Every structure is written in C-alpha cells, then in structure tokens.
Amino acid sequence: MKYFLVAMAVMLLPLQLLAQVKLSGHITNATQGEALPGATVLLKEASGTATTTDQNGYYEFSNLPAGTTYTVQVTFLGFDAAERQVNLSGSRRLDIRLNPKSVRTSEVVVTATRATEKTGTTYTNVSKEEIAERNFGQDIPYLLDQTPSVVVNSDAGAGVGYTGIRIRGSDITRINVTVNGIPINDAESHGAFFVNMPDLGTSVQDIQVQRGVGTSTNGAAAFGASINMSTLGLNREAYAEALNTYGSYNTWRHSLSFGSGLLNDKFTVDARLSKISSDGYVDRAFSDLKSYYLAAGYHGKTSTLKFVTFSGVEQTYQAWNGVPEEILATNRTYNSLSYDNETDNYQQDHYQLHYSKTFGSNFDFGGALHFTRGKGYYEQYRTNRRLSNYNIAPVIIGDTTISRSDLIQRKWLDNNFYGATYAFNYYSTDRRLVTTLGGGVNKYDGDHFGEVIWAQYASTSGIRHRYYDNNAVKTDFNIYTKATYQLSQKLGLFGDLQYRTIGYSVEGLDDDRRDVTQEADFAFFNPKAGVTYALTDNQTFYTSLAVGNREPVRSDFTDQSDEDRERGIRPQAERMVNLEAGYRLRGATGGVTESTPGTRYTLDANVYYMDYQNQLVLTGQLNDVGNGLRTNIKDSYRAGIELAGALSLNDFVEFRSNLTLSRNKIRNYTETVYIYDEDYNVEGIVENEYEETDISFSPAVISAHSIEVQPVRGLKAALLYKTVSRQYLDNTSSNDRSINGYQVLDLRLRYTVKPQFMREVELALLVNNLLSKKYEANGYTWSEMYAGDPGRYDYNHYYPQATRNFLLSLGLKF
Questions:
Q1: Which of 759, 748, 727, 808 is nearest to 151 (CA)?
Q2: CB within 8 Å of 744: residues ≥ 6 apart
Q3: How many CA atoms lie within 13 A of 119 on its CB side?
Q4: Could you tell me the pTM of the whole model?
C-alpha cells in the first residue's frame, strides 16, 4: 500500500490542469454585516464544484480556466439563496450579501446554542475545509490543536485511541460537548470519550469552540469551554469520497463517504463507513476502531425532518498506566501491562431525529429526540488478589486456607441515555430583535458491574461471577431564553437566562464492595449578559458576564468516605463567574487582478477572568479504601489574555498565530500526605499549607503558529508550531511533580488536482514532531511518607508522545 500511494502521487502529478485564475470573496449578512462562516458556494457550470466559507466568511476557488463565465450560487442556513454571474477573464473577487429569511432546517437547535458576533462571547469557528485539511484519522482533539488555549494528549502517544483535550486548563469533564445540539458528555463522569466516535470529523460540517461559560446549551455544564459540533449540512449535489491513510506505527485509516444530493428537491442521504487501526507509539497500545454515519432528510417548503445516526466500536489495549518517571529516560514506550487481552471494549450508538418548522416570516421551531446506547467493558489480569474483595469464599484444602488468587476481571458499563431538546425562535421584521426559548430534558440509566471470568482458585464461584453491581439514574432538565437586540447600527445587547435541575441517584455496591446507595438533587440559575459595539464596519468590541454552576461527578459521591456519608456531608456544587472582554478585526483588500488576488486579515484579542467558588480538586486525601478524594476549594481563579490573528497575502502565503498568557491559582490550599508504617497501614498525616498555588495542568503560556505557502497552484506546504509551558501534576506548584514545557513542529503537505474524470484528487502528508522532540503531554502523581523516614516520596507517571512520525493520505472525490 505504501508503494501504491507513492506511485499514485507520481502518476497524478502531470494531470494538473493549466488553470490560470481564481475566484474568491466574502459572504456576509445583508442586514447586520456579520460574516457567515460555513455558507455553501457552488459553481453551477463546473460539475457541481462547491466549497464553504471559512470561519471569517471567506471562500476561494483555485485552478479555474480563464475566460469562463460561471453562475455562483450561495446558500446558508436561515438566508435566501443568492446567484451572481461572473466572467473570469482574470482572477476576481466577488463579495455577496445574503438576506435573512425565516425558513430553517434541522440545525435550528444547533444555531440556538451557538455564539455569534452579537452575543459578546469568546469563540472560534472551525470550518469544514479546516477540519478536512487537518484530518488524517486522528481523534477530534487533534483537529482542534491549533485553536487558542488548547492542549491535547494521547495515551498511546500518536493521536489514535484514547485522547484528551484541555482548554484554558480545563479538562474534558469541564467542557460541554454536543453534536447537533445533543449532549455527548457522559452523564456521570461528565467526560466525552472521542475514541467512541472514530473518524467523526469526516462527517462534521463545522465546529464551534466557545471558551469560558459561553452561551446556554444542553447537557453538562460548560465550566471552561464548550465544543459544539454540527454534522453534514445540506449537500445539493451528489458526491462520493474515499480517504485512505497509512502512517507510522502501522496506522491505517480507510473511509468511504457518499451523498445522494438533493433528490426530487426534497430528499437527501449521506453516509460514511470508516476503519482506523494503529499499533500505537507505546508498547502494545493498539487501537482497532470502526464507525459509521448515516443521515436521511426530508426538506419541505416550510419544514425539515432529518434522521442522523452514528456509531463507534472500539477496542484498545490499555496504556492508561503511563510510564513511571524512573523508567522514562531509558524506555519511553514502556507499558507495565502485558496480559494479551488487557483491553478496553466499548460500543456507542447515537440516534437523533430532528424536526424544524417555519411559521410565517417571524417564527421558527426546531426540536430533536435522541437516544444513545452504550455498552462495554475493560478486562484486567490481577495477581495475588484477596478473594474476599470479590465476594469469593476462601479455598480450604486440608489444613491449608487459600485466601488470595490470580484472576481476570471485567468491569462493565451498560447504559441508556435519551431525551429531547428544542428551540423556538422569534425574529422581528427588521431583524433587530432575535429571541430564543429553548431547553431540553434528558435521562440516563446506567448499570455498573464487575465479573470474574477466571481465577486460579475460584472456590465456589462460577464463570462470570458478579462481585459488584450498582445502578445510577440521572435526570437533567434545563430551560433557557436568549435575546439579542440591536439598539443601533453600532450597539447591541445580549441576554441569556438558564434554569437547570439535576436529580441523581445510585443504588448498590461499587467495585470496592462498599454500599454507595445515595441520592442528590441540584437546582441552578445561570444568567449571562453581553454588549457588542461596532467601532467600524470591520471592528467590534464585546464584553460579557456569565455565571455557571456544575454538579459533582460520580466519583465525588461514590468515593466519599463512609464517615462523611454517614454524617450527611456531601460534595458541594461548583460555581463560576466569568468575565470576558474582547476586540475583533476582520478585513480584506485587493482581489481584482491576477497579480493582486487579495489580502485578508483577522485579529482577535480578549481578556478573561474565571472566578471559582467551591472548585473540586484533589488534595491528597484518601477514603477508607485508599481512593483519592476531591475536596471543595473555596477560592480559585483563572485569568488570562488570548491573542489570535491570521494574514493571507495574495493567495501565496498565509500566517496564523495564537497566544495565551494566563494565571491559574488556588488560594489557601491544604495538601495532605499520608505516613505509612512497615505494614502499609496509615500511621499519620502531614498537612502542607499554601497561601497561593497553581492549578494543576494549567500552563501559563500556550501558543500555536502556522505558515502555509502555495508555491504553485494546487500545492500547499505548511509548518505548524505548538508550544506549551510547564504543567504541574498536582496543586503544589512543585517542579518535582510537573511536566516540562515543550515545543513541537509539524509539517503538512497537500497536493490537489482536479482532473476531468473526477472532482478532486488530493495527496497529503503530515509529519508530526518533525524535529523528533521527546516530550510528555500528560501525567499523574501521588506522594507518600514512611514512619521513621523524614523524606517524601513522589511517584510520577507520564504519557510520552511520539517522536517523529508520519501520516500519508490519498483522497479521491467524485
């Protein structure tokens, strides 16, 4: 296959057409002047050649034959379609302004939860084209690595399998994730596991990343950021696409997509099948991932009905133990696990039914029903385990009593998550006032249980002996109302009020055989307000103030000490007040001749302050059976400056850069370190007081920079540079328990041709970590002291990321 890909590249090089000109432009809202990212731009006479606008509303077609006349058709959700004719005697720039209309499609719920230039919120839009150029089969976090304040990591080290993302230092349990407005975060842990949605990026239309509290949305609280993904929109033309990738560590990605186009002006079908596999950088950290996507829609004159389903099946060898610090220098790919089936096995099926309806010229409605089915287990080989911990009687042979055994355990999850979301929108005739009433109700019902499938000494137990079993039920209701009002051409106001209730109950025994039966209820009010002011047509200032509340996660309840539970002491909800203020600049010049195809530039600058009350953090405290406990910290904050800019010069070179400078602090923090005797019983504790210390995993400096050049039509070469400063593994600001800062340089090459027999052929190469730096992006630690020894012992574990590696991709579009 490697030789085939190289041969294809060599054969296709001569096929580049002798196109001489390009067509580019800017798509905006005719009434408010704002850019329209994700608008579809179609050249009717070019066999359905189409593109979508980028996050700033710009589009571009390259390699078009000179002297040709085209009909340019532009469509965008909620706007009247527009057509313009243009003759390309030379390169041209064609800007088009779209008029709003009331007809909506199934994305009403999506747009209701998204930020716009009128909401005073800090956000980044990632277009379909940007996703495609970054998509070599790695997980969603890696497609967002170049967006502001983002840090990503991979257990296996190469971006396939279990991956993680932090935004402004907040991990995935504090990041709200939705697909088409439907919650994705696990109802109990609040995590979102992208390994269960392999290759979803290929079926995504666009992604909006909101930083901070953001606007009201469905599902888990956005306590640092939100990731709002929208799957494929309306494709009017039929298409087919095959993507094949091969890379280091025997990494393969095969993906086949197709769409029917608009059939009979009413029906559409889009589908995808994908398979991704990799041996991983870390020893035995393989991944075997399969997925599909299917969407079928009916598009009426005033209503739309769309069914969306996607599924992922994953098997990964566990690499979540990381590499101990003392081994890291000599064996960076070390994996402490060696049992051949030490694997994680899970399947997650998503079903969504979206309906939208237009009522006259001022109202529309969007609603969705959803159901997610998840089931799977991870298998572990364990040595010398107490049989009593598994509810297995000891084995008695004559005078010998055997109370310990080697065994294989499986820990299962079997859950159902279902509910409904809705959004009802009103638009004043002059579009100065836009209001939304929306919300959702969701229910989670999940079983947690463990089985012993083999034991060296099984006593009276049978195969698949169940040693713990508990059920959790969680209901989540929210209702919100939002409004934007344009007081004048320059000044706009935004308001957003959300009320959210949560009911959570657990019944049964957990994996440590403790009874964790309990109930908890929460009610939150989350107000938000913002102001936007247009300094000029292309410069905007905004500011917003938002309040967010977040309930504790499952482990905060189940890992509680028996004493605290008996005394009625419960983990408290967290609260955050978020202040954002920023400036946006959008501009373009030129674009009328071949020699000056145009300059485009953007600048985003914002400051933020996120003030936490009762933030839950690890302090070193343990419960009755040694599990780490999180404790509410009264006072902590994050404050920072985010800068992002882009400059495109004459279609030849493009610069992009973003920088985050931040302070992430806890005030009055107490760390607990346990002292153990020679039999490993707790003999005492040491408490260390800190007046102000750094929040773990919160680097003070994050930056991403790229330069992309197009020396000849169809060939683009890009260098991507990422920097992350030191991260602390705990909340003590100790360099002894930290991840060193790192800098990583990637190289990306893309060569695209448009032969007459197909729409497009693209050969792409991604070289990750071009300079082969050795670095770690994640880790964990714990500390102990021992009786009679004054020293402190830190046990640091790290997740090393791959040295230089590559991914080579061949894409065929029909």
A1: 727
A2: 721, 722, 723, 768, 769, 771, 773, 775, 801
A3: 24
A4: 0.88
8 Å CB contact between 439 and 424: no
CB 20 within 8 A of CB 712: no
Report residue 384: phi and psi, to 5°: 50, 50
Report DSSP letters for 31-80, one per residue.
Answer: TT--B-TT-EEEETTTTTEEEE--TTSEEEEEEEPTTEEEEEEEEETTEE
Sign for the CA dihedral angle at 379, 380, 384, 388 comes to: negative
pLDDT digits (tens, 9 = 90+) for 682-693: 999 999 999 999
Q: Which residue has the tokens 């985010």?
A: 642
CATH number of 228-813: 2.40.170.20
Residue 531 to residue 46: CA distance in whole angstroms: 43
Could you confirm whether domain 2-227 is CATH 2.60.40.1120?
yes
How far is 346 from 808, CA to CA, in rounded Å? 28
CATH 2.40.170.20 domain span(s) along the chain: 228-813
| CA–CA dist 167, 164 (Å, integer) | 10
Domain with CATH 2.60.40.1120 in the chain: 2-227
pLDDT of residue 13: 42
Alpha-carbon distance of 34 to 797, in angstroms, equals: 48
- 502-529 pLDDT, tens digit per residue, is 999 999 999 999 999 999 999 999 999 9
Burial label for 263, CB within 10 Å (0-12, 13-18, 19+), is exposed
Phi-psi region of 280 (alpha: psi -120 to 50; beta: other; left: phi over 0): left
Q: Which of 103, 93, 51, 102 is nearest to 73 (CA)?
A: 51
- The confidence score (pLDDT) of residue 47 equals 60
- Check residues 110 and 625 and name the one with the higher pLDDT: 110
Q: Is residue 378 scored above 90 in pLDDT?
A: yes
Q: State yes or no: pLDDT of 499 exceeds 70.
A: yes
CB atoms within 10 A of CB 301: 9
Q: Which residues pair with 705 in a beta bridge?
A: 657, 721
Are the CB atoms for 167 and 211 separated by under 8 Å? yes
- Can you tell me the distance from the alpha carbon of 394 to that of 694, in angstroms, rounded to the nearest whole number? 48
Contact 176, 184 (CB under 8 A): no
Six-digit token string for 145:
């690595």
Closest by Cα among 752, 749, 746, 738 to 159: 746
Kindly compute the dihedral angle of the four CA atoms of residues 563, 475, 189, 221, in this order, to the nearest 10 degrees: -110
Angle at CA 716, nearest 5°, toward 715 and 722? 160
In the numeric block, which tokens belong to residue 562? 């028996």
**Six-digit token string for 572:** 């408290």
